[in-house]
Amino acid sequence: MAHIQFFTHRCPQVLLILQSVLILETALTQMQDFGFPPLQNLLGNICRSPIAEAVFRKLVTDEKWRIDSAATSTYEIGSSPDYRGQACMKKHGITMNHIARQVTKDDFQTFDYILCMDESNLRDLKRKSNQVKDCKAKIELLGSYDPQKQLIIEDPYYGNEKDFETVYEQCVRCCKAFLEKSR
Prior knowledge:
Strand order of the largest sheet: 1-3-2-4-5
Order of helices and strands: EEHHEHHEHEH
Structural class: alpha/beta
Largest sheet: 5 strands, mixed
Strand content: 5-15%
Number of strands: 5
């Protein structure tokens, strides 16, 4: 679960919201609190978004970019990324320096883009953005930039190291394509 932001007001800013477990989302959506499904409380900003954040940091050499990530829940605030994601990134020579935080109303007003990993996050973030005055963020799926057309980046939390590698590969493809489009 990663975010990218630019430092200047003229440059676009990007926030990545990258978490959810699709299998549980339907049942838990009925118990949503403040526009986000409680499912986000299970995995908050420790798997996909820190991987995407680290990939963006590696790809971006321009200092105008501010890169960050956030969760839609409070469950993992203050936590480090999942150890399997850290191992995957280390294998690829990419440093992970992230502590989980929750997305804020200010993020919707500050970022030009909020990129998420699945349709549940997309719906929830769009619903949440409707509650924010002067929302300027364009909310979309990071997978919409995938040249291989894999729209959803699946949550690897209940999987194995191979699943984290798949997330890494998707994030590399999507982040490169996003950066090419935004230049």
